[in-house]
Amino acid sequence: METLVEVLDHAFREFAERPAVRLHAEASGTGRVDGGIGPVDGGTGRVRGGVRPAEEERQADAGPDGTSITWTYAELDRRSRLAGWRLRAMGLRPGDRILTWSPSTPALPAAYIGAMRAGVIFVPLDLRMAPDAIHRIGEVAGVRALVLGSGRDAPDPAAAGLEALSIIPLDDLVAEPGPELPADWAAQMAGWERPRPEDLVTLIFTSGTTGTPKGVMLAHNNLVAALGSYDRVLPRLEHRVVSLLPLSHLFELLVGLLYVLSVGADVRYVQSRNPRVIFDALRRQRVTSMIAVPQILELFWTAVEREVDRIGRRRAFDRLRWLARRLPASLRRRLFRSVHSQLGGGLRLFVCSGAFLPPAIQQAWEDLGVTVMQGYGATETASGTCTTLQDHGIGTVGRPAAPVEIRLASDAEVLFRGPTLFKGYWNNPEATAAAFDEEGWYHSGDMGRFDAQGRLILMGRKRDMIVLPNGLNVFPEDVENTLRMAGIHDAILVEPRPGRLEAVVLAGEADGEVGDEQRARLGAMVKAANARLGQHQRVDGWRLWPEPDFPRTHTLKVKRAPIAEWAAAQAAAERPG
User: In the Cβ-directed half-sphere of 487, how many Cα atoms lie within 13 Å?
Assistant: First the structure.
């Protein structure tokens, strides 16, 4: 199978009557709000945690499984064909681009697959993107239409200057056939030319701290090769998945949608960020596997610990964790069956990528019998490295997943080669040429090293590396991750003057001010982090960022340059004379 359409059509035939995609209904139910673990008070309906039942979000027409929409593989197939027909009926032709901007819902995969059938390239947008970034993406991509989601989180096209585009409501795109469709529409569609392996599927726009965003061109053969790499490393379970990440991100699109559909998984979308709703979805789905970023693992673990503390079982819980490390995973799950029951009773696997995962968080879930597989890659590579069910050492991101090749350059930059690599940046040949060397290796900009077992350990971004006056190199992410493990979750390492390392800490307050007690805690955390760092990495001081959040790119990555410039100006103003 050489195209995604062929891969998905095979799945639609093989798993036709299985549930494929669901939308979780946000109706009230039992469970805690302040983290989602545990029952309500004595069955009275009073919820501990400060959110009253009257404030909970509800969605009508919930079925007995807690969903408002459930589509089988056959139904998802049919809806995708309706979407493909309607895209062509609008006058869109193979190679045209459309924006997709919607919360996750079963209709969104149908629209993506419909676009593939019609040969239309979809450009997904994150709901949290800044309006000016969205406007630039639309201009750079030369899009002809916008597929727009609905509901509570539906975005406003006018805010991003997109009102001049042809706007297609997502629900209309996948709706039941109406009089506008000829009776033989499906037969006509069967006669369309099939996509070719080299045809583009999507443009994913990566963040840039300055200038125009770059559109990563990914074709069918790139993504089919990526699916093959995942199939080699991910275990063949009866995957029941709860999707929390946006489908606009390639990690969720590829692993959390296309891969899991190719193996017959059952996916439930949750649009709410209310912890009660999320944990209700986990239980009702009897979730076995989750595609996650580290923040999700941390949030879930915080909920577990909060409940342990509430019932006064911390010492016993910690002793059981110590014991569990000496047992196989199946016995660990039995040991902590009360926790697992609140997560649906079947959670076996987290597939985690996208950011630094604190080793203590991975160890915590492993203690409970949940395997944490860490992966690493870039949008440009579609795949990369991954740990495995048999080898998931803490602190590493594993080995390359064939057909991906990886090597380290002489300066320790991670290089990629293989069929999963992108076709280049949209209408940007200069940036494309700069990303590859003469041997076809893609330069990731990430620095790494291999451990004794040949597993990759990441060190940080090449462009962010600080070279001290004594010639030693400091990778800010190494120091920031150590600060995070010490309790400072949001900090950026800078060198405000030669040889002095400082942490700029996000206080989360409107004026960037904190009290003496919090300052003392921050100082103690920095001291604790320094005890774990090499002498040349140690933080000499820290200062508070004066705003509620750091400046960020359209994909919410921190812009380091303005923070470093601010810290340097502050340091210069403090020096006498």
Answer: 12
